[in-house]
């Protein structure tokens, strides 16, 4: 890295001035096209309406099944996939007057933002907590505009993450506190008073890396010849320090600042939020996630399905539609190699329907788009294809998720609006566990990291909707290979062996979790019951009942767990369309984040009629996909939409002060 800085520093002023002029000229030439309508010209926020809890009303929005008759005429755009990126770009284009059709393969819109209800419990599948949703944050403003101000966010506890390290009586708990950069890092120092210098060095790396991420977004909209010039000359590292840190792993940075393994574990704990272990992950990705949460974290009021529920009306307002049970089998192309539409398979009949539009936007992920949807000869024409062929771009990690329905309110169960990251052995390498050949083999090893979250404890609407009940999820790493032999089986009909393999590991995960949350264990409760009130006793399993001097001494089993179900990598593939059950699309490793590949991961992949959106385009997570949708809409409308959003933010702040 020092060599790059020395090279840049040795350039004369005339050289640097010349390069700057080339950049400015290139950008001026590339923007000499007619601009589309500004979708953020007017503040779209309306007075807040009551939460819609009627399931029939919600289904009318979220579960509109595909039929050819429902497809609008004279479409401007087709979007494949209804995840955060797909809905965002569709809603922005609708606000600019475009008629957009969004097609979702699942039976509910929202992608990872959908929720499901079983046995009287609601569970989220993807949104657990989100940063940058404070009143003055740009992602919050963008969400407000796309949902007419109807999507609201509830703040988690100030200490929103707990890192539990160790086992049994040796467990130590460390908390992560949001507020601002100073609060975040000073709170870390208060828990590691002997390591303040190491934390300062870590902070310096985080700020240097994440501070130039805006430049990464800009480069994805610059002409390819310009970005290639900046990369090959090495000047990109001068303009955007972020790319210097993409060459370095998180583990390398941690090892350079401290020998304290506990500190390293606490600093690295949120690698689960982007699904790549410290020895492989780009430090730039880690730094970006740290800054994302540095001010705190939020959760959608009413649950994660509120995102799609309030974005869809915006899309429909311009004549568009969001249709589910509409799996796109392939992209249609013409003799010139242009994408001209999609082929949809009707889920019940198996019949295929061709739908045409001037533009198709894929929110199905890079690997799905290039290896499943596009004809090979068309895919190979994209500048991005060599990185897929050479496996520089590969699927990220997968997981097993245990969904648990609990009897009792959050107060009764001691659940808080925070997450718990559990590291029994302070193992951030995860290599021994990942080396397991089967789920049964993995269940005999120590699960290296667990993520515990209770959506019911962070959603103020929950108690009204599900009184006397709570929910939680526990997520652990899992390998696709543990379950791939059942890939061809039908969902819910994969057989006893598959279910056994899931439950073996799920039981191990839940039992491990209870070591850190003992209040969730089933327990025996003993009390004395007089004969006169026996008719009011709730019907529960009785372990023993002894009559003593006219009173009945009853021991009953109080079951905390009322419902449990398990999602495997195969579950992720079925519901999300993820090729290998991955959580975050492409792996967030050094290759993916490098300047060379990152600048090719852009909406325009060099195939006429096709654009990409979603977390593969920018970075993983809700806000990463949100901004990817904005970036894709920029290309369609040929407008600097980030600037439009900033202008609206400035105007709304000014109006709020009046």
Automatic annotation (TrEMBL):
Protein name: All-trans-retinol 13,14-reductase
InterPro entries associated with the record: FAD/NAD-bd_sf (IPR036188), Retinol_saturase (IPR052206)
Native species: Lingula anatina
Listed PANTHER family: AMINE OXIDASE DOMAIN-CONTAINING PROTEIN, BLR7054 PROTEIN
Similarity section: Belongs to the carotenoid/retinoid oxidoreductase family. CrtISO subfamily.
Xref: Pfam families: NAD_binding_8
Entry keyword set: FAD, Flavoprotein, Membrane, NAD, NADP, Signal, Transmembrane, Transmembrane helix
Spans through the membrane: 12-30
Lineage, top ranks: Eukaryota, Metazoa, Spiralia, Lophotrochozoa, Brachiopoda
């Amino acid at each position: 890295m020092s060599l790059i800085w020395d090279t840049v520093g040795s350039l004369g002023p005339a050289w640097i001035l010349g390069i700057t002029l080339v950049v400015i000229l290139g950008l001026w030439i590339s923007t000499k096209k007619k601009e589309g309508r500004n979708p953020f010209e007017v503040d779209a926020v309306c007075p807040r309406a009551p939460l819609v809890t009627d399931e029939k009303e919600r289904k009318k929005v979220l579960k509109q099944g595909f039929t050819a008759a429902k497809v609008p005429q004279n479409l401007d755009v087709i979007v494949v996939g209804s995840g955060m990126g797909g809905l965002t770009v569709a809603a922005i284009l609708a606000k600019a007057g475009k008629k957009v059709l969004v097609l979702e393969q699942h039976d509910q819109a929202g992608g990872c933002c959908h929720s499901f209800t079983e046995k009287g419990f609601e569970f989220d599948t993807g949104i657990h907590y989100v940063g940058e949703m404070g009143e003055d944050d740009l992602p919050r403003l963008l969400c407000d505009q796309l949902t007419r101000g109807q999507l609201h966010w509830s703040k988690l506890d100030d200490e929103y993450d707990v890192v539990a390290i160790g086992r049994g009586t040796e467990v130590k708990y460390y908390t992560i506190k949001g507020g601002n950069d100073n609060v975040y890092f000073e709170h870390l120092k208060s828990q590691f008073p002997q390591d303040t210098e190491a934390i300062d060095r870590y902070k310096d790396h985080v700020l240097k890396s994440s501070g130039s991420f805006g430049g990464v977004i800009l480069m994805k909209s610059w002409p390819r010849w310009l970005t290639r010039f900046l990369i090959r000359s090495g000047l990109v590292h001068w303009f955007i320090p972020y790319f210097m840190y993409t060459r370095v792993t998180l583990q390398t940075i941690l090892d350079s600042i401290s020998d304290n393994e506990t500190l390293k574990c606490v600093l690295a704990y949120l690698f689960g939020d982007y699904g790549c272990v410290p020895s492989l992950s780009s430090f730039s990705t880690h730094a970006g996630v740290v800054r994302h949460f540095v001010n705190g974290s939020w959760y959608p009021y009413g649950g994660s399905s509120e995102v799609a529920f309030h974005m869809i009306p915006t899309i429909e307002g311009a004549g568009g539609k969001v249709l589910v049970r509409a799996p796109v089998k392939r992209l249609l192309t013409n003799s010139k190699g242009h994408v001209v539409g999609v082929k949809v398979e009707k889920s019940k009949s198996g019949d295929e329907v061709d739908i045409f539009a001037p533009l198709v936007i894929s929110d199905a992920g890079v690997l799905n788009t290039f290896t499943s949807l596009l004809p090979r000869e068309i895919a190979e024409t994209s500048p991005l294809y060599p990185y897929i062929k050479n496996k520089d771009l590969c699927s990220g990690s997968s997981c097993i998720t245990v969904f648990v329905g609990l009897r009792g309110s959050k107060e009764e169960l001691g659940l808080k609006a925070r997450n718990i990251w559990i590291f029994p052995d302070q193992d951030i390498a995860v290599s021994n566990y990942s080396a397991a050949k089967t789920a049964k083999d993995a269940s005999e090893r120590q699960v290296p990291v667990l993520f515990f979250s209770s959506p019911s404890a962070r959603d103020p609407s929950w108690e009204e909707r599900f009184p006397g009940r709570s929910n939680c999820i526990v997520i652990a790493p899992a390998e696709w290979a543990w379950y791939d032999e059942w890939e061809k089986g039908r969902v819910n009909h994969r057989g006893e062996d598959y279910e056994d393999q899931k439950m073996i590991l799920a039981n191990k995960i839940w039992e491990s979790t209870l070591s850190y949350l003992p209040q969730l264990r089933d327990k025996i409760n003993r009390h004395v019951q007089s004969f006169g009130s026996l008719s009011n006793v709730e019907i529960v399993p009785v372990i023993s009942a002894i009559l003593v001097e006219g009173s009945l001494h009853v021991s009953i089993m109080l079951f905390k767990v009322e419902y449990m179900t398990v999602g495997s990598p195969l579950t992720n593939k079925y519901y999300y369309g993820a090729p290998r059950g991955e959580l975050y699309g492409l792996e967030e490793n050094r290759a993916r984040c490098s300047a060379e590949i990152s600048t090719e991961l852009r909406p325009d992949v060099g195939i006429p009629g096709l654009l990409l959106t979603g977390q593969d385009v920018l970075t993983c997570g809700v806000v990463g996909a949100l901004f990817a949708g904005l970036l894709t809409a920029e290309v369609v409308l040929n407008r600097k939409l980030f600037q439009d959003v900033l202008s609206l933010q400035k105007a709304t702040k000014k109006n709020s002060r009046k």
